Structure formats: structure tokens, C-alpha cells
Amino acid sequence: MLTVAVILVGALCVLNLTLTVGVIRRLREHTELIQNAVRIGPPEQIMLPAGETVGPFSAVTEEGVEVSRDTLADETLVGVFSPTCSACAEQLPLFVDRARSFPGGRDNVLAVVVGSREEAAEQLARLAPVARVAVEDHGGPVAQALGVKGFPAFARLAADGKVLASGYQTSDLGVPVAG
């Protein structure tokens, strides 16, 4: 009886050791993946960088008003969002706050939601009071003109379409506040 117990405990120890070695091997793989992700980091430019000029575009807002590069105000705040993006959900309230205090008000703020209206309903409801909002499919004209490579993407544009600042966080913009 004692021999069986010793063999059973020995077998359990060997099984435990095997599982522990497997877990350690897996943790090393995860550590390597995380280090690679940190090295890669977010894209250097999520959209056109400062100094570049936005390509021509035309879109219709949810209110039926056409917006284009030619209809940009003196300075325009732009935000591009996706309803399936967790970083967009984090940045949306910050964008809404910035838009609320942006010089020129709602007419100088353009929000683009890339996806379906059904998916974007919550974002549309939050953006509509502070921005002109356009919904477009992936690879749509506004996102293409802005050179968007990921979400969220933000920019401040001059009236001539020149990018004054851009980034993947609203804090990258140095957005002026209405006085």
C-alpha cells in the first residue's frame, strides 16, 4: 500500500513538473511577443503628418450638408473613429470636450465615423451636438484624403487643407481653446 502511495505521489510530481515547464515556456513566448509589440508600438503616423496637405474629398454629413476640402473653415478639428475600436471609445469623450471648446464651434469640427450607421449609433449621438458628422465605409473618401492608417486619428487642418497637427490622441493636437 505504501509503495502505491509513493508511486502515485511520484507520478503527480512528474506531471506537475511537466506542466510547470510548459507554462514557463509559454510565458517566455508571451514575453517575447509583448517586447516585440512594445518595440513596434503605435504607427509613427496614424495619418498625414503636420505640413502635408489633405487630398481632395467630398462627403455628406448626417444632416445632408456636403463637406469637402474646399469648405474647410479657418481651422478645422477633425476626428476619425471606428465603432469597433476600443481606443476610439477611450478618446471619444476627450474629442467631444475639445470640440466643445474649439474656436468656431461645431462648424469648425468634422467627425468621421468609419462603419455602418447601426454600429455607430452611440458615437453619432455623442458627436452630433459638437461636430458635423459624416459616416463612411472603410477606405472612404475622407479617410483616404487624410491618409488614415488606423483609429482613432485626429488632426487640425488649415483652411487650405494643410495639416497643422495630427496624431492618435487628442493631446497630440495642441488644440486651441475658444476665448
UniProtKB/TrEMBL annotation:
PROSITE patterns: THIOREDOXIN_2. One of its GO terms (molecular function) is oxidoreductase activity. Residues 48-179 form the Thioredoxin domain. Signal peptide: none annotated. It comes from the Bacteria. Pfam families: Redoxin (PF08534). This is Thioredoxin domain-containing protein.
